From TrEMBL:
Belongs to the aspartate/ornithine carbamoyltransferase superfamily. ATCase family. This is Aspartate carbamoyltransferase. Residues 157-302 form the Aspartate/ornithine carbamoyltransferase Asp/Orn-binding domain. NCBIfam families: asp_carb_tr, PRK00856.1. Its EC number is 2.1.3.2. HAMAP family: Asp_carb_tr (MF_00001). InterPro entries: Asp/Orn_carbamoyltranf_P-bd (IPR006132), Asp/Orn_carbamoylTrfase (IPR006130), Asp/Orn_carbamoylTrfase_sf (IPR036901), Asp_carbamoyltransf (IPR002082), Asp_carbamoyltransf_Asp/Orn-bd (IPR006131). GO terms for cellular component: cytosol. One of its GO terms (molecular function) is aspartate carbamoyltransferase activity.
Amino acid sequence: MTFRARHLLGIEHLAPEEIRSVLDLADRYVDLNRRTVKQSDALAGMTQINMFFENSTRTQASFELAGKRLGADVMNMAVAQSSVKKGETLIDTALTLNAMHPDLLVVRHPNSGAVNLLASKVNCAVLNAGDGKHEHPTQALLDALTIRREKGRIQRLTVAICGDIAHSRVARSNLILLGKMENRIRLIGPPTLMPSGVAEFGAEVYDDMREGLKGADVVMMLRLQKERMDGGFIPSEREYYHRYGLDAEKLAHARPDAIVMHPGPMNRGVEIDGEIADDINRSVIQEQVEMGVAVRMACMDLLARNLRAERGAKAAETYV
Ligand code: CP
């Protein structure tokens, strides 16, 4: 296993071989998670704190399950009932929790860069569970695992990422990961939802869904991220669905064996037709959720190994 990282803050810090190490270990955790007894001792004796400053269903639940299945003591900080509501800053909150000696801190925050800042202030390993429009690394890793298991590889595929690219940390992390693994990436959406500077990632940009989907192996749909929008970006949801919502007619332009993905939460009838989302022959949305637990177990296991090695080295220095 090659995985040198101290924290998991973004895909941009990972080398292709580190990404492969996460996916290989996650494959093993998929097998464990399908057993009746899903227990490992990879994090035995360790403490994991989950701090979610933004709503979450999939990411928070899967990080909690992942930690528990690996034998960690897991604490979910209830941000809504915490002293954050009395004005305590993110850094003071993190320093307070750091004084309780956690080993792993899982953080979601609405501000881009907040998790990186926090990682510079604490002694434990920090995992980014999504920061603003910046990155959502475990989402991109679970998407990569889903694609690799479905397509048998994670290279040389044509992947269409469709919808609100501008406000999406999922799109950004996927763009970086899929680029590192040498895939052809197409971004499809209205010009108002396309960030500037996408060309630097080597992606092709389309505003016509049918054109962009031609020959795609993977169709990744995104929600309109209204919580990060400042003003109106589309004429109406009805018009948006007509032009950019994935339905059977538009999907027919992709390869016949193309898979349909969505990170969730979905807005049926806005970016995706409900029947496509539920079509077990095309949609891998539930598989993505399953892979999420395994990928988060793999990430925390690998970070814990590095943390133990670092602490072992420091202890040896002290002894000398
Ligand atoms: N995909 C994702 O991040 O979902 P949640 O917001 O429910 O965690």
